[in-house]
């Protein structure tokens, strides 16, 4: 590697870790919104709780999602620093826009959209690995739907099990259980989301001949990404916490437990299968599920529909921004 390329490589890894930090900041609400809105933990304690479980997630999951992102979205042969820069800037720009507006969009799909945009700007649609794109796109619909159904099923099961409890007695039980469900959800969040950045850094290293043998994710990349996401979570995303925790529907501790557990199960399955899903989509679907279990009017559908629009727009918007940043690099 020539002396100019090494500083560029280091700078791009720094940008990737900045995205991971922003991902933790942006998606902190997904991990803590229910536990804060039900007043089980104060916000400052909830972010520490979530950040810890975000960080240790690598101990529980394989790196299947990182592999999908690294070589299953666009052809690894066309990856170069300019493509990675375009992908990261597309994702970061869209994250900042939606964060400023308080809209819980998907950091995951912003990154994949940015990668698709920059990759096709360089090599056309022939560089796209459609099987990976279809799998990821299907998850835009499937992950919130599964989260919704699981959360709804859990509400029904718990309502039957605790039918003889007073509301106050049930709240006391679920205030404790929510600590467990929030931990599981934060593990799922750290396990799935941090791996997307791992895949980006690993494919960048691979494209520059910095990995020995076949494509893999070095351990230092794993630890760096988990740490960056954990630190981002510590800073929280308070605008989005408000949207997720109270604007969509009001939650009791039992409902918060069902939403977090349904979301966590969905994330665990997706991470095991190597599918890069959106934690935002998943927990939103679960929250809508527990709200709809009371009555359909309990869900503020105008807020939910605004979030869904952001889901649909995220991937193409980030792709356009990513392609734009790739073309800017062509002038330097």
Task: Give an account of the 3D structure.
By secondary structure, the protein is mostly helical. The protein has one domain (5-329). It is 78% helix and 0% strand. It is elongated, with a radius of gyration of 20 Å. The mean pLDDT is 83.
| Percent in strands | under 5%
Helix content: over 70%
Rg estimate, integer Å: 20 Å
- Helices and strands, in order, run as HHHHHHHHHHHH
Structural class label: mainly alpha
> Count of helices?
12
Q: How many E strands?
A: 0
The outline comes out as elongated
Structure characteristics:
phosphate transmembrane transporter activity, transport, 12 helices, transmembrane helix, transmembrane, Inorganic phosphate transporter, elongated, about 80% helix, about 325 residues
């Amino acid at each position: 590697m020539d002396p100019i390329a090494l500083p560029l490589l280091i700078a791009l890894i720094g940008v990737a870790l900045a995205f991971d930090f922003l991902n933790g900041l942006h998606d902190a609400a997904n991990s803590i919104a229910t536990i804060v809105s039900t007043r089980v933990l104060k916000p400052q304690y909830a972010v520490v709780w979530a950040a810890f479980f975000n960080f240790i997630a690598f101990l529980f999951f394989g790196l299947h999602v990182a592999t999908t992102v690294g070589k299953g979205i666009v052809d690894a042969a066309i990856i170069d620093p300019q493509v990675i820069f375009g992908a990261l800037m597309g994702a970061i720009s869209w994250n900042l826009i939606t964060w400023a507006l308080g809209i819980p969009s998907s950091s995951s799909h912003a990154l994949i959209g940015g990668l698709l945009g920059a990759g096709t700007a360089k090599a056309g649609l022939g560089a796209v690995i459609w099987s990976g794109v279809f799998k990821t796109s299907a998850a835009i619909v499937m992950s919130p739907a599964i989260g919704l159904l699981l959360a709804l099923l859990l509400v029904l099961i718990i309502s039957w099990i605790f039918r003889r409890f007073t509301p106050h007695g049930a709240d006391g039980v679920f205030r404790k259980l929510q600590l467990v469900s929030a931990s599981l959800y934060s593990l799922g969040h750290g396990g799935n989301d941090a791996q997307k950045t791992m895949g980006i850094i690993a494919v960048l290293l691979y494209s520059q001949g910095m990995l020995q043998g076949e494509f893999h994710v070095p351990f230092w990349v794993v630890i760096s990404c988990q740490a960056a996401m954990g630190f981002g979570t510590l800073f929280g995303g308070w605008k989005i916490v408000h949207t997720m925790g109270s604007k969509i529907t009001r939650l009791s501790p039992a409902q918060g437990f069902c939403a977090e557990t349904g979301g966590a199960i969905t994330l665990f399955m997706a991470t095991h299968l190597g599918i890069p899903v959106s934690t935002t989509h998943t927990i939103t679907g679960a929250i809508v599920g527990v709200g709809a279990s009371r009555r359909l009017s309990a869900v503020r559908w105008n807020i939910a529909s605004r979030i869904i629009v952001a889901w649909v727009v995220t991937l193409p918007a980030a792709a356009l921004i990513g392609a734009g940043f790739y073309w800017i690099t062509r002038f330097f």
